[in-house]
């Protein structure tokens, strides 16, 4: 296994992690920003008002994007298993 192969696998794994976390993180960011704007406008500073909508939105994002996320992770894992012989120098 060469250094280039290790770097390539690391880059692919980081890219997959970014793709899989993006729907959840972007949803939490957008909802958190909207809630903070609402809190600033109304001057209601209740901590649960900031947490509950974000938690609900993240749950919805996981339900909506969950199947795609699992498919991406399974596809990446399958590709890794297919590349094992070539990574070990047998292919």
From TrEMBL:
Keyword Zinc: no
Matches recorded under Pfam families: Bac_export_3
Domain of life the protein comes from: Bacteria
Chief localization: membrane
Gene behind the chain: fliQ
Membrane topology: Multi-pass membrane protein
Stated name of the protein: Flagellar biosynthetic protein FliQ
Subcellular location(s) of the protein: Cell membrane; Bacterial flagellum basal body
Keyword Aminoacyl-tRNA synthetase: no
Function, as annotated: Role in flagellar biosynthesis.
Parts of the chain that traverse the membrane: 20-38, 50-70
Family of this protein: Belongs to the FliQ/MopD/SpaQ family.
Keywords annotated in UniProt: Bacterial flagellum, Cell membrane, Cell projection, Cilium, Flagellum, Membrane, Transmembrane, Transmembrane helix
